[in-house]
Amino acid sequence: MRETDFSIKQLVAYCLDYANLTASPTLTQPVSTHLIPRELIDLDRIIFSNTDGYSFELRTAISQKEQSSLEEGEIEALRQVIARDTPFAEAIAKIDRKFRVNGYTKQVVLETGFVDFRAKKIKRAFFANNTEEEEGDELEKFSRALIRIPIQLSVKPDQYSMRVNITLLDESVSILINQFRDCIPQEDFDELFSYIAELEAEERHYLPLKKQFIEQVWSRFFAILHRIGAEALTEMPNYTECRIMLVSKANYFLSEDLDVMTKLDEQSLIDTAISGFVSSDQMDIEEAVDDKGETEIFFPFSYDKWQLKTLGIIKNKAVIVEGPPGTGKSQTIANLLVHLAATGNKVLFASQKDQAVRGVKDKLKELAIPFLFGYIPDRESRLHSENDERDSAANTLVSLDREFEKKALLPDQKVPLTLISDFKEKFNDHTAIERKIFAITNEMNTLAKYKDFADCLITEEQYDEQVDYIKKLITVTQQTNQFEQDHQTYVDQKDRAYQDLEITLDAEIETIATIIKKCEEILPERSGFINKAIINIKLTAMLKTTAKDLAQEIYRDIEAVLFDDSLTKTQKLKQLRLLRDYFVYSNLVAQKDDLMSMGKDSFLKNRGILAALNKLIKVECKEQVFDRIATYRQLQQELDGLRRLIDSSAQHGYGTVNDIRKAICDLRKFYREDTIGFVRNRVLANLDELKQSKETRSKLRQIARSLTKSKKAYRTFDKLKHDQHNFDVMSDVLPIWMMSLDDVSRIIPLQAGAFDYVVIDEASQCNLAYALPAMFRAKHVIFFGDSLQMRDTNTLFKSNEQLTAIAKKHAVPEQFQIKAEEDTIKSIMDIAGLAGFKTAVLKNHYRSPKELIGFSNQNFYEKVGRALDVVNDNILTYQDTNRVLLNHVIDVDPRLEDSAKTNHSEARYIRRLIQDIRKDKRLKNKSIAVLTFFNEQAELLAREIDDDSIKISTIEGIQGDERDIIIYSFVITDPTSGKRRYQALTGEGGEIKKSANEGRVNVAFSRARQQVHCVTCIPPISWPDGVWIKKYLAYVDAHGFVRRHEKSELQFDSKFEEDVYDYLMNKLSPEDYLIQTQVESCGFKIDQVITDIRSGKKLAIECDGPTHFEHGDGQVYVQSDWERQGVLETAGWNFYRISFFDWYNMRDNARQDLVRYITDYFMGDIDRQDMPIIHDLQQKCTLPADKRQDVYKTRIKQSHQYTNAEEVQQETVSSNTPDARNRHTFTVGDREVDQNRFDWYLSSRIGQTIRIRYQSTRSGSARSFRELRLYKYDATYLYAAKQGTDRPYRYRRDRVVEFRK
User: What phi and psi values does residue 137 have, to the nearest 5 degrees?
Assistant: First the structure.
C-alpha cells in the first residue's frame, strides 16, 4: 500500500459532491423557448398516446398570395399567429443551430408538468451524506417542471413558416427531482428520491404515461412540499404547455452510483481498479512483448511496435495509454478488446464521447464475429442512426438460437507470428545479401585489371615457376633456331640419317666430345706417309676404345671424317665439333619439346596472361599486384557463396525479396483470419457451454423473446441495473460491452469487479467523478487519451469556491482535486499520471503528412520528449500551388458585418472556397470540416453553407474526429480587439489558461488528413502577439509548400539505378508514365517512382544493392530494411524490388519480370495467389472438437445378401470417436481415390476451378463431373463454390470418386 492517510471512500464522497454540484440548476444556462401552448403541441398525443413523434408548423410571415386573397380580419388573425409563433421559431432555430455545433455536450429536451409554489430556499455546500444546509428566512417563489423527455428536432424553415418535427429518442421519462434540491431538505429529498427509484424499477415511467402515475408522483411531491411549509402549491401540474430546451447532458444515475459507493466499506472499493490510486499492488508490472511467436497475441488489426507494447503493462490494476492525434488509438483499443476477449476476459469499453465508442464498434463489426460485443447506442447523440440500432446488443441477442459455423484453426495460434518473424529475417538477410553483392561487385570493379590473373588462380610461387619456364623455353628456342639458321642443310641431312636411331643424346655428346679431345692430341698439323699410318693406327685404336658404344651410323660418320685424307686436322675437328653440336641441338630440341608438352596446359596457355602480368608488375611492385589478385580472388569466393544462398532460397520458392514480402503479407492475412477464427470459436464455444445449463438456456430464451417482442428492445437494458442475474447472463454471452459513460451508470449493475477490464477512451476529457463508477465495476482499468489535448470542460464556469470547499471538506489531496481554473483542470488521465500509473505512448502518426502534423509535433510533443514518427506521405496539394497548407488573407466587407462575434466576409469566402474544392476532381469526394473558435461564427457558417456532409463546429466539437480537408475561420478583423477575444482561448502565456489553451490549439490544428485552409482578414504578420493563431499562420506560410515532390534533376546512387532508369525509359511511354528518381518520403529516399499520368497511381521501384537503410532523417527511426519498407508501405507506397544480382546475371528474366509487373500493377491485375507457406498452414488447420456427448449411431450388421434390412443394432458411442478426419484411406463403394495424388491436385488449384465426380447421398449424383471453384481444403473436407456463385459449400473428400485436370 502507498503511504497515505487518504482513503478511496473520501475520494468517492468528494466525487459525489462534485456530481451534485454540476447537477444544480443554478449552475446551468439552458437555451429555451417560452411556454408553448396546446394549440401548437398537443401534449396528450406525446405523453398519453403511443407515438414516436410529433410535428407542428410555426408561421413567420404572410405571403403575397395571402395578402391579396384573405380578408382584413383573416390577415389580422394571421398577424397574431405570426406574433405568437415568431419567438418560438427564433428560439427553436437557435436551439437547433447550437445543438448542431455542440451536440457532443448538449441535448434537446421537452419539459412539461409545470408547478408553482412558495418555499424557503435551501443553500447547500453540495456535500455528500449529511449535507450541510442553511434555510432562507423568507419564502421565495419557485416554478419548476416535473418531467423531461429527450427529443430530436428536425427544423425545415421556408420563407413564410417553419415546420418542426419532434422525434422521441426514448420511451422513458425523467422525473426532474433534482429541480427541487434547492427547496427540499436532504432527508425529505432522500425519501422522494427512493420513491422515484421504486417507480422507475417498476417501469411506470415509460411512454405512454398513465394519468394515475403522474398524479401519484405529484401527490408525493405535494405531500413533502406541504410538510416543509410550502405555500401556494399548484393543485395539479400543467400538462397543457411545454417548453423545448437545449441543456447540458447530465447523469442522474452517476449520482446514484456514487451515493451507493459512499456507503460501501473501504475493502470493497480496494478490490477494484480504483485501488490503483492508493495501493502499489499490481501497479509495477512491465513485461517485454514481441510478435516473434513467443507470446500469444490476438490482434486482428494491423499494429506497430508502440501499440504492441501496451500488452506489456495491462496486467497492472490501472494503466495509461497516451494516444496523440493520428497514432491509431481506436485501432489499438479494438485490438486490445479482441485480445482480452480471446484470453477469456470480460471487458467494458466506455467513453463520454459517442463518436469514440462508435468508431471502435465499427472496427469490431468488420470482424463479423457473432456475439463478440454488446453495443448500447447513445440515442441522444446527434450521430445516432438506424445502423446503430442494427448493431446494438438488443439486436445481437435476438439471434441467440441461431447456429453459427465454427472455423478450422491451427493448433497453435503463435505459428503465423513465428513464420512472419522468420520471413522478416529472410527479408533483411536477402537485402543484406544484395547489399553485400553490390558492395563486393563494386570493389571487384575497382580491381578489374586483376580479374584475369585471379581467374587463372596464379600464385606468386606459380608466377616465379612460370617465369623460369619461359626463360628456359626462350633460351632453348633461341639456341635451336640459331643452329638451324646456321646449319639447316646439315641438320636436314643428319635428321634423315639418324631418324631411326634410338640413342641417348647426352651419352653421344659426351663420347663425341671425348673423341674430339683425343683427336686434338693424336692428329698432327702435318704428317708424312709413315706418320700417317701410325696416326691412323692410333685413331683406329682410340675409336675402338672410345666409340665402341656409339651407334654404327654415327661411328661410320666419325670414322669417315677421321680417315678422310683430303681434310686437314682443323677441318676434321670442325666436322667433329659440328656433329657434336648437332647432337647438342637435338638434345635442345628434345628439351624444347618436353617444355612445350609440359606447358601446353599451363604455362603456355597463360603466356598472354603472364605477359600482361609481367607488364603490370613493371608498373606496380610484385607484392602489391599479388596482394590485389588475392583480394580479388577472395571477393569472388564471397560472391559465389552469396549467390549460392540466393539459389538456395529460390529452390524453396522464395527466390526474390518480392516473394518474401508477398509471403509476409499472406501470412499477415492468414494470422488475421486465424485470430478472428480463434476468437469466433471461443465465443461460440462459450455460448454452447452456457446453453448446457437449463437455467441459463431458459434465461437466454426469455431475454431473446423480450427483445423480439419489445417495440423498443433497448427497454430490456434499462432493467439490467435492477436485475443482476439478467446482466450476468448477458455478459457471459457477450465478452465485450461498449457504451457511453452515462449509460454505464444507467444500465450496468453497480457490482464490484463485474468486468475484468474497463477501457475508458478520451480519458483526457473525462473527470474523476465520471470515471470512478466505471472503475469500480472492473478489476483493471486502461485509460486512453492524450494529456496534451483538451481537458474536461464540464468544470468550466463552475464556482471555484464551491469546488475548493468540497475538496477541503473531504481532505482531498491537491493531485485529486477538480478545479475550474483552466490551467489546474485535471482529467482522470492527469490524476492517474500524477499517481504514477504505468504509461505506454503511441508514437507513430498515420493521419497526415509531416507538413500538417508538424505544428503540433514541434510545439507540443517534441517538447515533452514524445516526438511523433510521421508515417504518412499522402500528399494532396491544392490546385497548382504545390501546397497542403494555405493562408487565405481576404478583405473584410464592412457592409456585411453586424457583430464582433461573427465574420460574414469569411463565411461567404469559405462557401465559395468549398465550391472550388468540389470542382477539383481530385478533391470533390474528400470530407471537409469548417472550424472556428466561436459559437456564433459556427452558427453563422452552418446557415451560410447549409450542407449536412460538411462538419461545422467549434474546436470543442472536433476532438477525436478528423477530416480530409479542414478550413478555419478566425473571425476577428481588428488585431487590438481580437487579441482580447483570442487571449482567453489561445493565449500562449499566463498561468491561468496556458495549459488549457495549448490543449485546445493542439486539437484545433491536428485534425486534417490532407489539406488545411486558414481564412483570415488579418495578414499573419499583423496578428497580435501572444496568441497561438499568429504562430500557426506563420507555420502555414513557412511549411505548407511541399518541396520533396517537386520535379528535380535526375539523381542516381549507382550505375545500377541508372541502368534500370534507362531501361524503363526505353520500355515505358513518356505520355503514359512519369519516372522520378530519389523521391523523398518519411525521411527516406525511394530510388525511382513510376506514376501513371492518367490515374495518378504510383509504384515505388527499389534497386537492391545500394544502401537504403540509413535509419531515416529523424522523421521515422527504423532498425532494419523490413521496418523501413513497412514504414513506407504504411505511408501508402507499393513496392517492386529489383535484385542487383538478377539484373546483371539473369538479364532477360529480370527485365521481363519488371515490365510484366509494372503492366499488371497499373492494370490492377497483380497475382493474388497465396504463397506455398499458406497452403502448408491450411493443411494443418482443423475444426475444433465438439464437446464430448453420448449419441446414438446405427450400425447395419454384415451378413449374406438376404439379411433382413430391419436387422440393425444400436450402440452408444462417443462423438469423439476418430472419424474420417483422422483416416488416410477414403473410399466410396468399391472405388478408391489416391489421396496423395488428390492432395497434390488440390494444392495446385487453390482459388481455381476443379473438376470432380462427387457421390452425395442422392442416387446417381456421381454420374457427371462438377466444376467448382476451390477456396481451401483440409484432411476431411474441401470448400468450394458452384459456378456462378461466391458462396462456398463443404464437400467430403471421401465422396470424391474421380477428379480431372
Answer: -85, -30
SS3 459: coil
Label residue 730 exposed, middle or buried (CB < 10 Å: 0-12, 13-18, 19+): buried
C-beta neighbour count of 379 within 10 angstroms: 19
pLDDT of residue 528: 66
DSSP state of 329: H
Contact 434, 1087 (CB under 8 A): no
**8 Å CB contact between 1013 and 966:** yes
Integer Cα distance of 521 and 540 in angstroms: 14
pLDDT at 859 over 50: yes
Cα separation, 103 vs 248, whole angstroms: 10
Residue at 1119: amino acid letter: Q
Peptide bond into 208 cis (omega under 30): yes
Q: Say how many C-beta atoms besides its own lie within 10 A of residue 1178's C-beta.
A: 18
Give kind and range of the element (H or E) at residue 1137: strand 1135-1139
Instruction: Give the highest mean pLDDT range of 128-137, 192-201, 237-246, 559-568.
Output: 237-246
Identify residue 784 by its one-letter amino acid code.
F
Strand pairing report for 1098-1104 and 1135-1139: parallel
Residues forming beta bridges with residue 375, ordered by sequence position: 392, 738
Distance between CA 986 and CA 981 in Å, rounded? Answer: 9
Q: 3-state class of 678 per DSSP?
A: helix
- DSSP state string for 19-60: HHHHH-GGG---EE--PBPTTT--HHHHHSS--SEEEEEEE-
Residue type, 1090: I
CA atoms within 13 A on the CB side of 555: 14
The type of residue at 891 is: D
Alpha helices in 447-504 (DSSP H): 451-455, 460-497
DSSP letter string over 79-144? HHHHHHHHHHHHHHHHHHHHHHHHTTTEEEEEEEEEEEEEEEEEEE---SSS--EEEEEEEEEEEE
933 Cβ contact partners less than 8 Å away, ≥ 6 residues apart: 954, 955, 970, 971, 982, 985, 986, 1000, 1004
Return d(Cα 933, Cα 1222) in angstroms, integer. Answer: 69
Q: Is the pLDDT of residue 715 over 70?
A: no
Collect all residues with Cβ–Cβ distance below 8 Å to 964 and sequence separation of at least 6. Answer: 876, 926, 927, 928, 1008, 1009, 1010, 1011
Residue type, 868: L
Tally of CB atoms within 10 A around 1107: 12
Q: What angle do CA 314, 315, 316 make, to 5 degrees?
A: 90
- Non-local (6+) Cβ contacts of 570 within 8 A are none
Q: What is this structure's pTM?
A: 0.75
Average pLDDT of the chain? 83
> Cell for 1288?
462456398
- pLDDT tens for each residue of 201-226: 677 888 888 888 889 999 999 999 99
Type and span of the H or E element at 1103: strand 1098-1104
- Among 187, 195, 190, which Cα is nearest to 219's? 195
Better pLDDT: 178 or 630: 630
Q: How confident is the model at residue 1217 (pLDDT cuts 50, 70, 90)?
A: very low
